[in-house]
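Exam revision sheet. Question 4 asks you to relate a sequence to its structure. Input first:
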Amino acid sequence: MTDLSVDARLLASERGAAPSMNNWVVIVALAVLGAGALALGDAYSWRQGALFLLGGALGLVLYHALFGFTSAWRVFIADGRGAGLRAQMLMLAVAVVLFFPALASGSLFGQPVHGEYGAVGVSVLVGAFLFGLGMQLGGGCASGTLYTAGGGNSRMFVTLAFFIIGSALGAWSLPWWSATPNFGSISLIKSWGWAPALAVSLVGFAAITALTILIERRVHGDLRSGVRTDRRGWSRLLHGPWPLLAGAVALAIGNFATLYLAGRPWGITSAFALWGSKIFQFAGVDVASWGYWSSPERAKALHESVFADITSVMDFGIIAGALLASGLAGKFSPGWRLPFRSLIAAVIGGLLLGYGARLAYGCNIGAYFSGIASSSLHGWLWLAAAFAGSAFGTYMRPWFGLSVERSLAAAQSGPVARD
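Answer key, structure tokens:
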């Protein structure tokens, strides 16, 4: 998700006593989560308040588990270490086991549910490639940008700002891209039935896992997991870091909870398109005339408060949850000195992330995680195209003075951008 996840002092401090918490940060984060949930529940519904808290829980998991897409992919590309990719495969495996029967029946505990689907075609290929490139230049993906910004990373605020602008521009141009050659949306559940679709998906995850093991052993002669720690029990639970695989399972369960509460899987970047479009609208742009906002549901979202939007509420929750996690870990330490080339990379990366996410019908969460969990073929296409873009972006990083880490621990070395 991001290469700016964990303080460089962590590897040393983990082996001693638990770090001091940032008490005021913890108090503020808890107050925001509690008051926000109550206000949303009163103004809209209990589900809206619950989704805000669920976003907070996901933000805490992302931060404490150091769960990455950006850094995990870069480390595998640059050095053949695949622990992060294997954790992603576990996350997806747990998700499809939970999702496929519910999506096939159309309901979950009496709540109507549906998956996230996108057209399989040129738009996804181009958009996901741009998103993968933007991940490596911007320093994070959609969820990674939110949780590191919430954790106090100043560079990620720059990436996030231009992510939002790029998302609005992507929404403006999406009708043109949607008209490019495509096969429409393809659901493996509808095509094959949920049991065969589940079996094929699990075989796919196993194949990718086996490939990472083969490559890592061939390159290094051994396998490594994520950041190691001597902390155990309540100390590790409270302060982190959590095991990567525990984070994978927690994220899958969190997405399943989103399916129940929202009626559809977890997403992130549609909110960025909404925020950016509202900003353009405030500046006098006739956003309502864009084809993207022509459907009744989207037009309603454009004219309502962002707090009525499920995705926005969960995004706000992720930021608050990451703030809480950083305070609990004693690592909330914003820094404002940004090298010029790193700043330019954040701007370019943010624009590519936002624009690419709209073209690809989602990001690493909405298209990759939730798309594959929904049995959508476009999620698999997204994975291939975004990984290719990430490979290109990895080798572009030195042009902007950014490092290319050779280990997962090195890739997760500070809430203040080393880049």
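Marking note for examiners. The longest strand covers residues 182-185.
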